[in-house]
User: Which sequence fits this backbone?
């Protein structure tokens, strides 16, 4: 499937020719000429560092540029399956969602970095076979600096331009994160290394309801500021079900002079027990009315999923109309719920907010 991307400087017009679902790309108040360099505007680039050794050219979109120019902006997250059969089911799910023209798809690490090799191989295969922009997750867990450099060299050779740099969760069975010998202790260190040595578009995680290990919301925000100062160009939020919590978080971030776009992360509820475990681990909360509605349907999987699709659809529309730059969906490797939500929004053009004057959600 061929795509033609052109950028007209300095007016900030970004045009995509294979526009079959009415996807609309519009200039925002931030001039594109201030955000896009000449080499990345044509979709071509090389590693700023180590280019002599690697000799890489890119053909995918940098997420920071897409966030500034592409509307609607939807992205989908998947995790590496445990076996080959799971990989084929995953590719079937991605193929089902592909006609929705996601801005990118992301591939996570397993718990404790356990699926690093599979993550890298999946990222490369998706970019190569499906012609989609890929965001590869990479964590500090269980890897030396030299091992991580080898991972990033491999990603760069494959033309992967976008990386989500994370500290990572402790391996299964361990209560706390322990920095590996010869490795990094914080995501900020990983981001700084990437910024010094590579030309990746770097993303980082953020937590509208505060990271579970943070001393306070203020300290959590200070850590986020450090990640952006180190080189993170965009932020992907932890899942949440309270839009007001996201909006308040973005407002506090802007007051703290954090200007990176904050992409909200939504997880459509499809299983009551599963989502209860997730929110317990990540520190998110479920609003009382939603929790009560879920409990009423507990034991009826179809009813729970119908509720989850309806709620996530309303969340997404509200977020976009209030100025969020897009929506990132945690799919759990399943396509039906996410496909229903995004297809409905596209069919109704429900994603069209008035972006004029929404300066508080864009970089200052």
Assistant:
């Amino acid at each position: 499937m061929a795509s033609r991307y052109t950028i007209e400087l300095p007016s900030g017009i970004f045009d995509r020719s294979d526009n079959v679902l009415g996807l609309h790309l519009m200039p925002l108040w931030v001039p594109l000429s201030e955000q896009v360099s000449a080499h990345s505007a044509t979709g071509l680039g090389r590693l700023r560092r180590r280019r002599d050794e690697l000799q890489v050219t890119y053909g995918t979109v940098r997420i920071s540029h897409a966030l500034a120019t592409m509307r609607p902006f939807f992205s989908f997250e998947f995790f590496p399956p445990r076996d080959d059969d799971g990989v084929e089911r995953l590719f079937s799910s991605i193929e089902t969602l592909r006609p929705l023209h996601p801005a990118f798809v992301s591939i996570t690490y397993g718990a404790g970095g356990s699926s690093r090799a599979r993550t890298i191989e999946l990222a490369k295969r998706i970019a190569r076979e499906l012609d989609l922009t890929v965001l590869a997750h990479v964590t500090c867990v269980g890897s030396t600096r030299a091992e991580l450099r080898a991972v990033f060299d491999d990603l760069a050779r494959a033309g992967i331009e976008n990386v989500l740099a994370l500290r990572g969760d402790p391996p299964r069975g361990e209560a706390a994160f322990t920095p590996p010998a010869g490795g990094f202790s914080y995501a900020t260190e990983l981001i700084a290394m990437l910024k010094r040595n590579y030309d990746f578009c770097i993303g980082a995680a953020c937590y509208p309801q505060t990271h579970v290990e943070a001393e306070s919301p203020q300290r959590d925000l200070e850590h986020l500021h450090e990640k952006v100062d180190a080189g993170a160009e965009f932020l992907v939020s932890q899942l949440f079900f309270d839009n007001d919590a996201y909006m308040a978080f973005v407002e506090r971030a802007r007051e703290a002079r954090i200007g990176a776009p904050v992409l909200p992360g939504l997880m459509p509820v499809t299983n009551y027990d599963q989502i209860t475990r997730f929110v317990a681990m990540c520190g998110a909360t479920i609003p009382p009315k939603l929790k009560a509605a879920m409990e009423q349907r507990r034991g009826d999987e179809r009813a729970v999923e119908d509720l989850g699709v309806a709620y996530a659809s309303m969340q997404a529309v509200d977020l976009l109309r209030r100025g969020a730059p897009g929506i990132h969906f945690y799919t759990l490797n399943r396509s039906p719920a996410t496909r229903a939500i995004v297809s409905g929004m596209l069919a109704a053009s429900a994603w069209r907010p008035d972006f004029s004057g929404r300066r508080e959600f864009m970089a200052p």
